[in-house]
Every structure is written in C-alpha cells, then in structure tokens.
Amino acid sequence: MSLNGKVALVTGAGRGIGQAIAMRLASEGVHVGLLARTSKHLEYVADVLTKSNSIRVGIATADVSNREQVESAVAGLKKTLGPIDILINNAGIAKFGAVSEMEPEDWEQIVRVNLFGTYYVTRSVLPDMMARNSGDIMNVSSTSGLRAAATTSAYSASKFGVIGFTESLMQEARKYNIRVTALTPSTVNTEMAAHLGLKIGEEDRMMQPEDVAQLVLSILQLPPRVFVNQAGIWTTNPQ
C-alpha cells in the first residue's frame, strides 16, 4: 500500500528510533509531524527531511507526560499538516535500579512518560481517525514489556502497560478500520542504550534504529484488510 501523501506524527522524533522512523516515512512521501521535549534536535531532523524530500514537516515541543502540552502540540501539528493518518508513539525514557533503591519520583516519571504519554498522544488523535474510519497507531514497547528482569521494575511496568493498552485499543478501534500495533524491539543501538550501559555486542551485529524503521514501514504497507497486532524484532547478537 502506498503511503505517499499521508500524514504521520512521530513522538520522540529528535533522535534514535523516532528520528529513523520519521526519515524512513518521509522517503515514502509521508508528511511528518515531529514531537519531542526540546526543539534543537527536531529542527535538525526537519531540516534534513525538507532538503531531501518533497514533503511538509511540522515540529512541536511537548513533554508527553503532560496532557495539556500534548493536546496543544497535537492541535498545532494538525493545523499545519492536516489530520493524522499514522501515529508512532515512540517517546520513552528508562532508568534501572532495585525497587528498594530507586527514588519514587524516578519510578513514577518513567511510567508517566512511557505509558501515560502513549495514552495522552493517542487520545489526541484517535477521534479524528474514528471520524474518518481509518488510521494506523504503532506503540513502541520493548522486550522488557514481555519479560522483566531485576532492576527493570519501572521500565518493565511501563512497557507491559503499553502492550496492555495496545491490545485493548486494538479491540476498540478495529471496527473503525484503525490498525493498532505494539512493537517489541530488543536492545537498539541508541544514545539511551549507551547511557544505560547496555551491552549491545559487536558493531556489525548491533540492531540499528533504521532496522526498526524498516519494520514499521513494512507493517504500514500491508493491505488495509490486515494488520499486525504485535511485532518483535531481535538482534542476531546472542547477548
């Protein structure tokens, strides 16, 4: 299915997976709304996209854990680009630590950004999709949303929540021809992974943000009659 002329909103679009997805969609003729907390990286991505593609690009800054900021940012992007056809809920944060040691404020913030942020952005675009009887929503979870480990309690709780939210939304939205997918990538070679000190193996075997972006594109290009409810992507690195 051609995506040319559609409008996508990508959260966490300034770097990493979000940036790669935005660039991949733009290469297919998709007009892209970029949302993140700070404008510096968004401006760079927007500049690259407009120079290399004949598309419209909009940028908006918001903390996705703040509902008022999200609603204002999405309204501005819709005014610039038009109704959202594709939503990529990618924005997320991570911090690991034992339950007895992590500060409650840190634990709560991870859940607010990763889970509530996904909900707030979705809620801002869903009514328009329902009215038009079409749309694609892709929520980036993690393999940590499928199985937890010591020190990942906050991150895993948030990402398990994203999968549960996605499943429920899928059941609600199918009758409106809205396709809802949860992505569960293993460790991706991003600044966040490096900051967390995660072992991601040899350079030529690391999963790259562009790999996730290619999976996103492949799912979106499926015929409208079908959709993928959950999609995992793993590195061949055994670590």
Automatic annotation (TrEMBL):
Molecular functions (GO terms): oxidoreductase activity, acting on the CH-OH group of donors, NAD or NADP as acceptor
Signal peptide segment: none
PROSITE patterns linked to this entry: ADH_SHORT (PS00061)
Top-level taxonomic group: Bacteria
SUPFAM superfamilies: NAD(P)-binding Rossmann-fold domains
GO CC aspect terms: membrane
Positions of the Ketoreductase domain: 6-186
Pfam families in the record: adh_short
Record's keyword terms, sorted: Oxidoreductase
Database matches in CDD domains: SDR_c (cd05233)
Family indicated by similarity: Belongs to the short-chain dehydrogenases/reductases (SDR) family.
Name under which the protein is recorded: 3-ketoacyl-ACP reductase
Native species: Sulfoacidibacillus thermotolerans (Acidibacillus sulfuroxidans)
